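Appendix C: a fully annotated inverse folding record. The material below is reproduced so that readers can follow the format used throughout the book. The structure is listed first as tokens, followed by the designed sequence.
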């Protein structure tokens, strides 16, 4: 049985459209993994097109119509992983799949567009990298556990009955209780914005906050934190917090200190420190003092200092999307004694 298909075409000087060879579809019945890029799907395909064994499909810089995409997807009976990047000549894609567990999106459309996840009863993780102008609507994904990166660069993302516009959530009486791991992508520390988002995920166990100067979009009309309105995940669920590109300045310390003093069951607070910071014992000792670590809400908490990865997505192997925690590349533990401060 043929297990792997990889078809890409790269024009060295100027990208030119080339049709997908018919031979690719002829082996559809035997494929388990397919990676297709730099080509055009036919305008029409037989409704009976069948990929009975295909478990992962990667589409990158392909031209495909909404109808053909639906036919291809409906023919993938056991598809578990779907990777989509720079899909062309279409501004709307719809996904309904009884088997999909992982969807990864990177620069989905050339311009503005909409991704509609209608029915994904087995979807566990929705990974968003390098957002463009797409709107993402998730109508039904009752098992969604891993989500990110949520960023103000995404104009709108709807999950269940909560609408995030530029990462600012709408008010809702029905939070998203299935999500356990969440990654946020902001230009700078914004505590009010993060806390407003956390209200939507009361059962969150692991939070990544990635600070990135390249995120140009700013968050507007952020609701102010109300201390008398408790955030449930901080009281009973959040076990791990990872802050990347941490510099140790006043803004960073103020953000992190809130979690040190208010996350009641946290086990680890990991600081992915910027590479231009020299992490030595004095620097860590000063940070612990500024963070008021001795007064931490969870006496079981450990504060760890390591380095930040340049890009979690750049480290992600798109051939194997099943890694237990896809955001774990954000933080790299050092092996010497200075990498961890045990209190």
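Designed amino acids, in order:
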């Amino acid at each position: 049985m043929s297990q792997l298909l990889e078809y890409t075409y790269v024009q060295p000087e100027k990208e030119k459209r080339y049709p997908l060879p018919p031979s690719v579809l002829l082996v559809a019945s035997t494929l388990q993994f397919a990676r297709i890029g730099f080509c055009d799907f036919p305008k029409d395909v037989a409704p009976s097109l069948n990929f009975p064994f295909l478990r992962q499909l990667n589409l990158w810089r392909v031209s495909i119509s909404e109808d053909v995409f639906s036919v291809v997807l409906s023919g993938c009976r056991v598809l578990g992983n779907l990777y989509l990047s720079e899909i062309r000549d279409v501004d709307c894609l719809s996904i309904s799949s009884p088997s999909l567990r992982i969807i990864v999106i990177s620069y989905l459309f050339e311009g503005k567009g909409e991704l509609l996840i209608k029915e994904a009863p087995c979807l566990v993780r929705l990974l968003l990298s390098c957002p463009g102008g797409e709107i993402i609507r998730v109508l039904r994904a009752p098992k969604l556990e891993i989500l990110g990166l949520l960023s103000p660069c995404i104009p709108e993302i709807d999950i269940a009955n909560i609408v995030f516009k530029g990462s600012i959530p709408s008010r809702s009486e029905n939070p998203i209780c299935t999500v356990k791991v969440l990654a946020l992508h902001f230009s700078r520390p914004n505590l009010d914005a993060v806390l407003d988002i956390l209200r939507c995920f009361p059962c969150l166990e692991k939070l990544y906050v990635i600070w990135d100067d390249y995120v140009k979009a700013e968050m507007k009309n952020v609701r102010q934190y109300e201390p008398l309105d408790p955030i449930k995940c901080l009281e009973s669920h959040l076990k791990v917090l990872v802050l990347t590109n941490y510099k140790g300045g006043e803004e960073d310390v103020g953000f992190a200190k809130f979690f040190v003093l208010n996350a009641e069951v946290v086990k680890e607070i990991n600081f992915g420190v910027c590479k231009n910071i020299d992490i030595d014992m004095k620097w860590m000792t000063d940070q612990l003092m500024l963070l008021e670590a001795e007064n931490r809400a969870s006496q079981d908490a450990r504060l760890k200092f390591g380095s930040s990865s340049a890009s979690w997505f750049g480290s992600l192997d798109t051939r194997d999307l099943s890694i237990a925690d896809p955001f774990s590349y954000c933080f790299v533990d050092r092996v010497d004694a200075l990498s961890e401060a045990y209190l």
